[in-house]
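Justification of resources, computational component.

The compute hours requested in this renewal are based largely on the per-chain cost of generating structure records like the one below. Each record pairs the submitted sequence with a full C-alpha cell output. That output is archived, and it is also reused by downstream analysis tasks.
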Amino acid sequence: MISELRAATVAVADLERSCSFYQDVFAYTRLAEAEVSGHAAELLWQMPPGLTGRTAVLGPAGAATGLLRLVEFDAPGEPYWGDYARAQDYGLYALNIRVGDIHDAVARLRAAGGRSKSEPSYWTAAADLSAWDSLSYDPDGTVLDVFQLEPAAGSPLAGYDGRPSALQTVAVHVSDARASADFYAALGYVELYDKLVEDMESFFRLPPGTGLRNINMYVPDSPATGRLEMAQYVGFPGVQQRGRAVPPQLGILSVSLATDDLAATAALVTGLGGTPVCPAVELDLPPYGHVLARSFFGPDGEVLEFHQPR
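The structure output for this chain reads:
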C-alpha cells in the first residue's frame, strides 16, 4: 500500500529564517531535526559527494502527514525555477496550504518576509468546491498557493477546524495531465476533480489564451492532506526541470510517500514508466527514523521518494 504525500523536501538558503517564516505565517512547529550526510543520503537525494545539510521537519502540532521538510545544504544554491520566467516547465512547483482567512494569511506572509504573486481570486473547482485562491513566494522564492476553501456539505474536504493546514497539496507542472493522473491512479490515488480553468491568465501570469488543465488527486484514507495536483498549461509547452532540481539548488526537491513493501512499489513504479534515481538504501530519514528508501523520477521528472519502515 502506498500512502498520501507524507512530506515535501524543500531546499532553503537559511534554515532558521525559513523555519521562522513558516512558524510565523502558518503556526507550524518543529517536529524533527537532523543532519543530512553520507553515501545513502547522497544517492537518495542526488547530493554531490561530500555535501551535507541540516534539516528541520515542520507542520501543525501533532501532524504526521503533509509535512514540510526544510533542508539547508553546506554549499550555496540558487532557486532552480529562477524567477519563474519559464513557468511552463515541468516539475514540482508549489506548496498548497489551506487557511481560514486568506486575507489575514496573505498579510502575515508579507509581514514575515514573503511576497505576493497574485492577489486572492475566487474560482469554482467543482460543483461542491469553490475557493479564494492566491499565489505567493516564501523567502527563497518557492511558490505558495494559499487558499480559503468553500466546500459544500458532503465534500471530502468539508471537515476543517479553521487552523492553517498541513500541506494539503503539492502541485506539479506536467506535460499531459491525463497521462500523469493515470500514473498516480495506478499508485492508488483517486480524483477529487478534473477541471479546465480558462480566463485566468492574469492570475497565473500566462500568455493570452492559455488554459490550465487541473487534476487534483488524493488517497482515499487522506482526502484533506498530502494530495497531488497535476497542472498542465494547455497550449504552452515546456521542458523538464529534473536536471536542475538537485541539491544544493533551492526549491521543492522531492515528495516523500510511505509504502509497506518497497520492492513491490519499485516494480510497480518502473512498470508504469518511472525511472529509478538510485538503488534502495537504508538511512535515518527525518521524521520517520530508520527506513529503507528509494527515489524515482515520475512522468515529468518530479522526484518521488518512497520509504518503508525498518
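The mean pLDDT is 93. Residues 2-79+247-309 form a domain with the 2,3-Dihydroxybiphenyl 1,2-Dioxygenase; domain 1 fold (CATH 3.10.180.10).
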